[in-house]
Amino acid sequence: MEVVGAQYMRNVSRTAKVADYVFRVVAGFCASSPAIFLLLIAGIVVYQSIPVMHFMGWSFLTHTRWDLGNLYGAMVKKNGVTAPVGASYGGLVFIVGTLLSSAIALVIAVPIAILTAVILAYRVRGAIAWILSILVELLAGIPSVVIGLWGILVLVPWISAHLAPFLRHVLGCIPFFGGQVGSGYGLLASGIVLAMMIVPIITATARDLLLQVPLLAREGGLGVGMTTWEVVRYISLPYVRDGLVGAIALGWGRAMGETMAVLMVSGNAMNILPSNLYSPISTMAAFIADQLDSAQTDASGMAVHALSELALVLLVITLATNLLARWLVRPRHGRRKEGVAK
Amino acid sequence: MILHHTKWFAGAAVLTALLAVSGCGTGNSTNNATNASAQPGQNATASGAAKTAGSISLTETGSSLLYPLFNTEWIPAYHKVQPNVQMTAASTGSGTGISDATAGTVDIGASDAYMADAQMAQTPGMLNIPVAISAQQVMYNLPGLKGHLHLNGAVLAQIYEGKVTYWDDKAIRALNPGISLPHQLIKPVYRSDGSGDTFLFTQYLSHGSASWSQQYGYGTSISWPGLSSAIGAKGNDGVVAALSKTKYAIGYVGISWLDKAVQAGLHYAALQNRAGQFVLPTTQNIQAAAAAVKQVPSDERVSLIDEPGASSYPIINFEYLIVKKTQPSTTTAHALQAFLKWAIDPGKGNAASYLTPVHFLPLPADIYTKSQAQIAQITG
Chain A contact for B26, CB < 8 A? Predict the structure, then answer.
């Protein structure tokens, strides 16, 4: 009986060993792939940008003129790099466009998302809560090209005819809100479209965080006579502060990297910085998507290198945002780390 | 024990899936990239398909303007002529078409613009073969205005440079005597993505304006003057949407979008040609311009902007197929030649039944001869 049992056990352990080995290889391969992909992408982008770094130096970040040069003419050599005559790669317009449009998106989206999350977490119950949550998640699932189409057909004409003249009328004395209202394509349209896309991300995360606030703490607040608003302001929001910053950083990253919807409503400005809220802009992600096809016809290859450097700048800024968020939520001396897992 | 088996099966399934995926990947890339190496007989034997000498595949990427012609007209028709030739087409943009063709990842790159000298020098042995004639119109959104506005390259250049900013500017009024124009800011619309349409339009502007030619030149993407009133829109659909939703806007649209744009309430301009006449992009006027094309070099890389003749429409172009002169095998070379000959033949691929649905016009007789001569240069 012992012998039979040992035989039996040995068989199992061999199978288990194979399974374990397979598991280790597959899991190891899968777990290392994000790091490998990130390094590969970053490496290629850096390598591809080197010729433009030589060609433009730091003025890539400070100049506003983007010109592929005459692709049908002769080549010139500058700083040891060959490029078409008249070529100049200044990315400032796209950097400013990316930062401004994503900042406007945050200004619009954060209050909406947090207040929605408060309602979802504390004020509605049962079927209504379920339906509202589903709707918020459905909003996140709308493809960006659909939002962009809606932007072109509905939002842009509305901004041009109503919202922009209204804002100029009410806030026109503040420099950024005055001036020409333009065609509706531009900074304001991009900000609103981006806000629509990041509201669901921030809302869903904030709702889950607010649900983690201990019921006892909230009831205690109400018990000592605090209003609903005071409970949210002084008990719930401080409790989830770290997680909220993370959620907002996630939304910001998404807003800066978003391509299609912005491309469709931004007006895709070139060689001009926005002068007010209604000016046409262009973002780094949208510009790369737009220009890559023409860039490939540059025999010197510089146009593709220049777009790579723009991608590198976008990567660095997104990474910096992420680090900034981590720094904001760093564990501080004398402040007890509270039980917010995210 | 059941648990262990489940794990083992799961692991095996994952591995199998990975192998299958990577296997497919390799298979596909081989098919796409080096279909040339497919030997006669090989595929036929493998697939068990009978008598044909062997099937061969030809791949095409590039121009979104040429894509409907390939996808809905030529490929189904050619499949009936040559059932053993499998063709696939993809709409990627002209620039990608050219770079795919020069890299050899596809057999045919479709482009609205011919290859630049620098590219030809970099990748010698490429052929730019015209297969059809296309055109472009200038469209605007001026509520209440009937008829066709008269415009020319010089005034259009000034509009896009920001020198002519209102519709009732004297430069526009001078071309349109007796028409009352509104005192409204002009909103110029350009293509933000790389486009053969931008290539044509900026060539027309360069012809009409020395300052445009010097400062901005022409190309599939150019460095547009920074105007706060300008709108960059993606694709012909984006331009039509921007024009139809923005009062007092003006832009350029490919001829295949003419019907849709007119339905959207837009009007198009009569453009001044070299003879000084204002002409509309009608079939007759485009054909007149195509017939006036002279002095086409043997490599056929030439601009057709502003051809002479009283009725010649000024913005027309060749639609090109970019192919390698030296093909990796004689089989591919023969298959490619046979297809290209069929495509430009006025009684076959260049027949109105294929070209009219996409608003292209057939090649004139002397261009047909020159394209034939280029096709004859393809060798295995």
Answer: no
Residues of chain B with Cβ-Cβ distance to A86 below 8 Å are: 217
- pLDDT at A99 > cutoff 50: yes
What is the secondary structure of A163-219 as a DSSP string?
Answer: IHHHHHHHHTTSGGG-S--TTS-SHHHHHHHHHHHHHHHHHHHHHHHHHTS-HHHHH
Tokens of B259: 């019907």
- pLDDT tens figures, B261-317: 999 999 999 999 999 999 999 999 999 999 998 889 999 999 999 999 999 999 999
CB neighbourhood size of B276 (10 A): 8
- Residues A2 and B44: their CA atoms lie apart, in Å, by 61
- Judging contacts by C-beta atoms under 8 Å, the chain A residues touching residue B235 are none
Task: For B163-183, give one letter per residue: b (16+ CB within 10 A) or e.
Answer: ebbebebeebeebbeeeeeee
Look up the pTM and report it: 0.84
The beta strands (E) that lie in chain A are given as: 66-67, 75-78, 81-84, 88-89
- Decide if A68 and B221 are in contact by the 8 Å CB cutoff: yes
Which residues, in sequence order, are bridge partners of residue B271?
B151, B279
Q: Contact at 8 Å (CB) between A214 and A187?
A: no
Query: What's the half-sphere exposure (Cβ side, CA atoms, 13 Å) at A5?
Result: 2
Tell me the per-residue pLDDT of B56-94, one tens digit each, with 9 for 90 and over.
999 999 988 899 899 999 999 999 999 999 999 998 888
Which contiguous run of DSSP H or E holds residue B140?
A: strand B126-140
Q: Look at the block and give the residue holding tokens 């304001």.
A: A188
Residue with tokens 């949407």: B241
ipTM of the complex: 0.85
Residue B172 confidence (pLDDT) above 70: yes
B262 touches chain A (CB under 8 A): no
- pLDDT of the residue at B43: 39
The per-residue pLDDT for B12 is 47
Cβ of residue B101 closer than 8 Å to a chain A Cβ: no
Q: Percentage of chain A surpassing pLDDT 70?
A: 93
Domains and CATH numbers, chain A: 92-290 (1.10.3720.10)
**Cβ contacts of A121 within 8 Å, gap of 6 or more:** A207, A210, A211
Give the burial class of B48: count Cβ atoms within 10 A of its Cβ; 0-12 exposed, 13-18 middle, 19 or more buried: exposed
CB contact (8 A) between residue A271 and residue B223: yes
Residues sharing a CB contact under 8 Å with residue B243, sequence separation 6 or more, in sequence order:
B139, B140, B141, B189, B249, B250, B251, B253, B261, B264, B266
pLDDT > 50? residue A157: yes
Quick one: pLDDT at residue A337?
A: 46
**Candidate from A19, A71, A294 with C-beta closest to B7:** A19
At residue B139, the pLDDT reads: 97
pLDDT for B19? 42
Show the tokens assigned to A296: 């490939």
Give the whole-angstrom CA distance, residue B5 versus residue B95: 53
Handedness of CA A275, A279, A285, A291 (dihedral sign): negative
What DSSP designation does A276 have? S
Q: Answer whether B159's CB lies under 8 Å from B186's CB.
A: yes
**Contact assessment for residue B364 and residue B350, using Cβ atoms and an 8 Å cutoff:** no
A53-83 pLDDT, tens digit each: 999 999 999 999 999 998 888 888 888 899 9
Please classify residue B80 by burial: count the beta carbons closer than 10 Å to its beta carbon, then call 0-12 exposed, 13-18 middle and 19+ buried: exposed
Mutate to test the interface with B, among A145, A273, A296 (most CBs of B within 10 A): A296
Residues B255 and B252: their CA atoms lie apart, in Å, by 9
Which residues of chain B make contact with A67, given a CB cutoff of 8 A? 222-223
